[in-house]
Amino acid sequence: MTASQGFPINIIGERINPGFKSTRALFDNSDLEGVQALAVRQAQAGAACLNVNVGPRAMTDPVFLTEAIRAIQAVVTLPLSFDVPSVQTHELCLQVYEPARAGGALPILNSITEHRWDAMALYPQRPFKVIVMASERVEDGVPKNNKSAADIAGTAKRAALRLREDYGMSLDDIIIDLSVSAVVADTEGLNRATLEAVKLIGSDPDLKGLHMMGGLSNIGQQLPAKAADGSDLKHQLENAFLTLAVPHGFDTVLGTPWRGYAPLAEDNYVLQAYRNFLEQTGSNALRAVRKLYKA
After folding, report:
1. pLDDT of 189 above 70
2. CATH number, domain at 25?
3. Is 23 a residue whose pLDDT tops 50?
4. CA 194 from centroid of its chain's CA atoms
5. Residue 25 falls inside a structural domain
6. Mean pLDDT, to the nearest integer, of 67-75?
7. Residue 180 structural domain
8. Number of domains making up the chain
């Protein structure tokens, strides 16, 4: 993988996803040339890998899924990450993917959890890298959401060591996805717990070489476009999170490559307001969020 300019991070290009209106139109029209152009644009903007999510058609139209993978691999030489809804569709993606077209790089399976581990049955047949969601754990056979840094880091460590010991995976092939919550409704300190978990995982000698990632698109959800200082609030929030997380080993982003992620100066308005927000809970957190966009 190649690092993004500004931060020493790898960007998994997120745009081949029907969550983006323009991409959904490409899928609706089976416009594979348009999908190819989107793949090329992300590659040229510095993506290290491309995430592939064709939405419900992955289940209803396996031919389209196959054609999309082959079309993308015909125009870019990046590895692909497969974000599909079932073990069967993951198996199809792994069968269609040609490592030789990506310089021998393994594909990425996106994703598993402690509770949804069955996709690992595919690993002996066709090795891959894997994204592990650390947002939930299994306790007495029941999945539970992780809300504390200790639970998030503990889940990440259990999963990583299990993958290494039971499947022989290198920690370099394991990516822990740490959920980045929207600040607008975060009254429970979830952003703080995620950042503290990054520090715990990054400082654990047993996990040296492990990768940490997150999708940043939710962090500024439902907030105004502009911060109180007139800057792009959502983008500045993404950079504020990265400014605090990257020094502790957070090294991968599911994001838009051309957004230009870069560290913020200590006196940056949004970074200072975000730091203040991280210290709050309950109604105080909501008041701290308003300071992001109200002078």
Report:
1. yes
2. 3.20.20.20
3. yes
4. 13
5. yes
6. 98
7. 10-293
8. 1
